[in-house]
């Protein structure tokens, strides 16, 4: 048994954060029983946890349904985090790219082996793929993940850690580490990545890494397009444009200090 003990309250903090993340990732309000079963907590523990979060205005309870959702306190924390990351200054870049392409644009960051949507400007066209900030996907199946990996010092270690047969999300998902490694080489040469219906069927994405001063990437800018609006010639056009946007974002978002590590 280790002589080191976790600081008092660590478990409670971890559970509270798990509740907040669960609500952030859900498109709908959640009832207490769903939170309890989703996190493997007893009904009593869940009730106390939810009560504490409500008291701090981090979550609120719908008086009609009894279900829970993120409240004003969480919104204020999110806004403060956006300012700290410089995302308020990066947003106009994403909006310009959205206006120019009429397609959905994401700013994505890396958390371990996942791509996490940090900011999104949604397409206004009738045919589009719905997504929300906080959505998480494997690095190997997304344009953002592959863009970041192509300029990550641990890319080789990440590829080596993958199973011989990777879990497919669609029929087009890359199945082997060797194929991913070959794509990363191509991305480094041309400067942008492609997700050819590898993460979501019917959706193609083009992404470019947001580089820090060392040439490493912990973030990426992507354009997300329904396949019917993405012929091969448009991939090239978007590839060139998304690289420009990624370089502009790098000017505003302090990647070295905020997103690395």
Automatic annotation (TrEMBL):
<dbReference type="Pfam" id="PF09339">
    <property type="entry name" value="HTH_IclR"/>
</dbReference>
<dbReference type="InterPro" id="IPR050707">
    <property type="entry name" value="HTH_MetabolicPath_Reg"/>
</dbReference>
<keyword id="KW-0805">Transcription regulation</keyword>
<dbReference type="GO" id="GO:0003677">
    <property type="term" value="F:DNA binding"/>
</dbReference>
<keyword id="KW-0238">DNA-binding</keyword>
<keyword id="KW-0804">Transcription</keyword>
<dbReference type="InterPro" id="IPR014757">
    <property type="entry name" value="Tscrpt_reg_IclR_C"/>
</dbReference>
<dbReference type="Pfam" id="PF01614">
    <property type="entry name" value="IclR_C"/>
</dbReference>
<dbReference type="GO" id="GO:0045892">
    <property type="term" value="P:negative regulation of DNA-templated transcription"/>
</dbReference>
<feature type="domain" description="IclR-ED">
    <location>
        <begin position="73"/>
        <end position="255"/>
    </location>
</feature>
<dbReference type="InterPro" id="IPR036390">
    <property type="entry name" value="WH_DNA-bd_sf"/>
</dbReference>
<dbReference type="InterPro" id="IPR036388">
    <property type="entry name" value="WH-like_DNA-bd_sf"/>
</dbReference>
<feature type="domain" description="HTH iclR-type">
    <location>
        <begin position="10"/>
        <end position="72"/>
    </location>
</feature>
<dbReference type="InterPro" id="IPR029016">
    <property type="entry name" value="GAF-like_dom_sf"/>
</dbReference>
<protein>
    <submittedName>
        <fullName>IclR family transcriptional regulator</fullName>
    </submittedName>
</protein>
<dbReference type="InterPro" id="IPR005471">
    <property type="entry name" value="Tscrpt_reg_IclR_N"/>
</dbReference>
<dbReference type="GO" id="GO:0003700">
    <property type="term" value="F:DNA-binding transcription factor activity"/>
</dbReference>
């Amino acid at each position: 048994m280790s002589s080191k003990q976790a600081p008092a309250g660590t478990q409670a903090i971890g559970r509270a954060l798990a509740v907040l993340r669960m609500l952030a990732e859900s498109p709908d309000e959640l009832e207490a029983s769903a939170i309890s079963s989703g996190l493997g907590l007893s009904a009593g523990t869940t009730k106390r946890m939810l009560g504490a979060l409500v008291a701090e205005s981090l979550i609120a309870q719908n008086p009609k349904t009894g279900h829970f959702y993120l409240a004003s306190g969480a919104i204020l924390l999110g806004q403060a985090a956006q300012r700290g990351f410089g995302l308020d200054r990066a947003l106009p870049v994403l909006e310009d790219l959205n206006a120019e392409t009429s397609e959905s644009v994401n700013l994505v960051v890396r958390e371990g082996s996942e791509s996490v949507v940090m900011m999104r400007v949604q397409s206004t066209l009738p045919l589009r793929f719905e997504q929300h900030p906080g959505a998480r996907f494997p690095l190997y199946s997304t344009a953002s993940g592959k863009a970041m990996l192509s300029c990550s010092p641990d890319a080789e270690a990440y590829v080596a850690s993958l199973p011989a047969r990777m879990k497919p999300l669609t029929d087009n998902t890359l199945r082997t580490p060797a194929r991913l490694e070959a794509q990363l080489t191509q991305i480094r040469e041309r400067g942008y990545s492609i997700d050819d219906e590898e993460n979501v069927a019917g959706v193609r994405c083009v992404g470019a890494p947001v580089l820090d001063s060392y040439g490493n990437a912990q973030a990426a800018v992507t354009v997300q397009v329904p396949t019917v609006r993405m012929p091969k010639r448009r991939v090239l056009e978007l590839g060139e444009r998304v690289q420009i946007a990624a370089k502009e974002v790098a000017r505003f978002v302090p990647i070295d200090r905020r997103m690395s590590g």
